[in-house]
Amino acid sequence: MRTALVVALALGLAACGGSGMHSGGINSTATATALDQAAQGALATVTAYGAGAAALATVPDCTTATQQYVDRMKPMVAQMDQVAGQMDSSLGSMGWSGHGDVQCSVASMSMELARHMAAACGAPDMTANRAEIAQHVATMQDSANHMRMRSAEVMAMGGGSGMMGSGGGMGGTMGPGWTMPGGGMMSWDHHAPGCSGSTGTGGVSDPPPGAAFSDPPPAATTRNGNILDVSIEAKAGTSELGGTTASVLTYGGAFVAPVIQARRGDVVRLHFTNSLPASGATNLLGASRFESNLHVHGLHVTPGTNPNGVAGDDVFRAVAPGGGSLDYEHDLSLQPAGSMGLYHPHMHGAVAEQIWGGMIGPIDIADEAGSPLAAYETHVLTLKDLSLSGGAPTPYDSIMDYVSGKQGDLVMVNGHVNPVLPIRPGQVQRWRIYNASTARFYRLSLEGHSLQVIGTDGGLLDRPYPVTEILLAPAERVDVLVQASSTPGRFKLLALPYDRGGMGMMDGGMGGCMGGGMMGCMGGGMSMYGSTPSAQNTLLTVDDKGSVAADVLPVQVNPAAKRISVDVASLPRTRFVLGMMMGRGTINGVSFGEAADGTVTAYQHDSKVGTYEVWEIVNQTGMDHPWHQHVNSAQVISASGADPAFAPYAAFYASAPALKDTVIVPKGGSITLLVPVLDHAGRTVFHCHIVEHEDIGMMGIWNIRP
Questions:
Q1: What 8-state DSSP symbol labels residue 131?
Q2: What whole-number distance in Å separates Cα of residue 348 and Cα of residue 694?
Q3: How much is the pTM?
C-alpha cells in the first residue's frame, strides 16, 4: 500500500499546474493546498482499503468481499491513473528520464491491493490476517492525517520560492519520519510490481537443471619463488548466456572471469592492459565508458604507491582504453591464508557499467599448509546476474538505474543458469561463494541441508558454524562446507526472497543544507520507501548420487581466529550517515564528485596506522547499503535492522571471529565496526558496494596517516 500514498501525493502535486512546476515553483499557499489535496487522496484510498478489509471481516463469502473491495477501488484507481499521466507528462517535459514510472505505479496499485486481499482469503488463520490488514490501514490513515496537519503548518510558514522550483524551497517534515528537501526535484518511488527498475519482482524463478557445473578457469600466471606474475586484460568479448550469444565486457574475452590464485607471502605483480574500445564514449553520468583500472577488493595491501614506485591498490589512477596499461604490485605477506577477494574496476562513474557488463573476478588465497580443509573437494561459485537487450547488457539509460541498482533476469553461477553439481551421498564439499553482482542480494539456502560457514571475506573461522541460510550482499564472500544427504536425490541451492528496500519518493536520509530553502536543512528521518522482495531463484542443482562417502566435518578450522580483544570504550568513535537525495548518494551529507581538473569533493576521514577505531554507520534511507572499506578488514560489534531476514546475519557477524570488509547496513538501521588501522598508510576510500551508488557519490576518502 506504500504505492497508494506515493500516488496520492502525485494527485496533490499535479494541482500545482504547469507554470508553477516549470518556472520557479509555487508559493506556500499553493503548496499547502497541494499537500492537503494529497492528504485527502491518501485518506480516500486507505478508507476504501479499510472498507474492503471490513467487508472481509464480516462477509462469510471471501470472494464476494474481495469483489466488493475491488469495486470500491476502481474509481479511485482510475482517477489516480489520470492524474499520474498528467504528472508523467510534466516530468517528461522537464527532461527527467524516469517519467512513466508514476503511471506504472498506479497501474500496478490495484494488483497490489488484490494481492493483499487474495492472501487474506487464502490464509489458514483468517483472524490473524484480518488483524494485520486492519493495523496496516490504521498506520496509513495516521500518516495521511499527519500530512493534512503539516499542510496547515506549511501555510503558516509564509512565502518561499516553491516546492518544485529551482533555488530555495520548502523544507520540513510531513508526518512521522517523512522529509522534504529544501528545493530541487524529489526522487520518485517507482518500485511497483512489474515496473522497470524495481529492486525485485517477487514470485519464483525455477529454471530446469542446466549444464554441468564448471569452476571458473585459473588466471594465467608465472611463478618464481614467491613472485607471482599475473596478466589481466580488459576487453570486449562474446559469451553464450542463457541461450543467447551476448557482447559483454570481460577480463580475458569470456564473461566468466578467471580466478587469481595466490598464497600468503606472495608478491603479486599484476600486469593490467585496458583493451576496451578507445571510442571516447561517455555514459549517462558523463564518465568515460571504457577508461578503467584494477582494484583488489579485500586485500590488505598498500593503497597508494609501493616503496619501489610501482602502484599499489591505487584506485585514483586511470588506465586509458585502446591498449593503455599499468603494473600493480601487491605484497601478500600480511594477507590472511584462506581469505577471499575480488578484482574489478574502480573508475568512479563507470564502475557499475563495467561490472554489470562482466568485469569482475575472484581472488582465492590458499590455506596454510596442513590445513584440515585440504582433503575436501573444493569449488568456486561466482554469483552474477545480468539482463540482455539486443544481444548486449541492458544499458544504464535512467538515473533510476543508479538510484535503484540494476538486477538482471539471468541469475547465474559461473556464467550458467542452474548448473548441476555432482556430489556423492555423505561427501563433504567446500564451496567458496562470491557475490559478483552490482546490486543483487542473495539469501542462500540449500534444500534439505544445513550449510557450515568456515570463512568470510577476511579469512577462515575457528570452527564450522551451522546455519540454515546465508545473506550475501554485493561483494560479500563466504566459505562453506556442505555434507551431502545420505539419501540420493537432487537438491536446489536457492536464493530465497529478500527485500533490500527501495528509494522512497522523498528519501533524502541525512542531508546537508540545501541552498536557500525555507528550512535550510533536511531532517534525518526515514521517508516513504518500498520495493517488492526479490524472486526466489534456483541457483544450482546438487545431484546426490553414486557410492557413499564416509566424510566427516572438521572440529576445528583455524584455531587462531578469535574476536579482537580491545577496550572499545576508550577508542575514538566516528559516525558515518548514508543518505540519498536528488539522484545522488551521500556520506555525512557530502556526495563524492570529481571535476574535470581532477579536484575531488568528498567526505574525508583521517586515521593513523597502528591504531583501532570504532565506526558507526547509520543508514537513514529506505534501502540496504553494503558498506565496504578498502585495505583493512573490520569486526562487527553490533548490527540492527527491522527486517527479520536480517536478524540471523546480524547475530552471526556480531559473535563469530569474522573479519569483514563488506557489511550490510540495513534500511533504517545501523552497524558498529571495530576497525584495525594497521600496517599500510595512504589514501583510499570507503563506499556503498551497490556500485551504482558508489558511481553517484556514496563514497568517501580515507586518509591513513603513517
A1: H
A2: 7
A3: 0.74
